[in-house]
Known about the structure:
By secondary structure, the protein is mainly α. The protein contains 22 helices and no strands. The longest helix has 15 residues, at 72-86. It starts with 7 loop residues before the first helix and ends with a helix.
Amino acid sequence: MCLLSRPLSMQTTFFSQSARTNLQEYLPQLLPTVFDAPNFDPIADAQALRKAMKGWGTDEATILDIITKRSNRQRQEIYQAFKKEFGRGEGDSEGRDLISDLKKELGGDFEDVIVGLMMQPIEYEATELRKAMKGAGTDEKALIEILLTKTNGEMQRLVDCYNSLYETTLDDRIRSETSGDLQRLLILAVSCARDEHSFNPEKAHEQAMSLYNAGEKKLGTDEETFVILLGHAGRQQLLAVFEEYKAISGITLEQAVKSEFSGDLHKAILTIIQCMQSRPRYYAKRLHKAMEGLGTDDDTLIRILVSRSEIDLGNIKKEYETLYGCTLLSAIKGETSGDYKKALCAIVGSA
């Protein structure tokens, strides 16, 4: 069952318990950038938002100030307060809905940020998956980013939510939109096939040798060997394999993959390797790529900032500055403008 169908008190524990607990194995200290606002009054916020969208014109500044400076838990309370205050329709009217009103009043990337912040985190990621597979073409990069970065617990909640929202299951949708070894990796991920509890350091050398023999040592590449091992082994096991591979080959597995693979499978395998080593560093690299060169990949920029803001965006900021010698905040300021820029900067927080 999707989290949105549960009572509000159960909905609002996603960031504070589930996601953050799962990440403890990756980071000793999680650093979010968005927190509960002090002296919070959901009724007052709901009334202020209604006033900001009533009549001619829209007060974007008020919307931005309220939505970006409240935690997701608080935004859900605002949503309920708005529904209670203004949701009673007249005659055939169904009444007002805060997210629907925001969609009507806002537009472009700014709308995407604000609406994304208003959604439950698990539903937000489910809708991002749906968007990646809707219409002509498939956004494989988004699928890889969302699906190959999850623990089994995180994945099971996402699959349950997606399946409750849409008629076609996530598994079936992936099978219809992807193919080959990429599809196999994604299906393994949504099936929660990763063995997160077993750790056999003695077996790591054998596994590393199998990867070496399937890649560098032979003409061509045996993709299946990589897919099976990287799709099933847990983090501890894979980290041991990475060390053994470097001892065998003299280069890292990541370096080997860059020379042995191409296209979406290359991106998928690198995502698994990088996330096992450091999820914040992986997301920092994704953000840099989204803002690199001409144009900006706004979908990726928004998705990562919104989805990680109450989990580990502070860690991602630190990794970004270490990797690229400038702050994430300054990079965003240079790539965006207007209310969109203000909203992203509010999520990221001070440098």
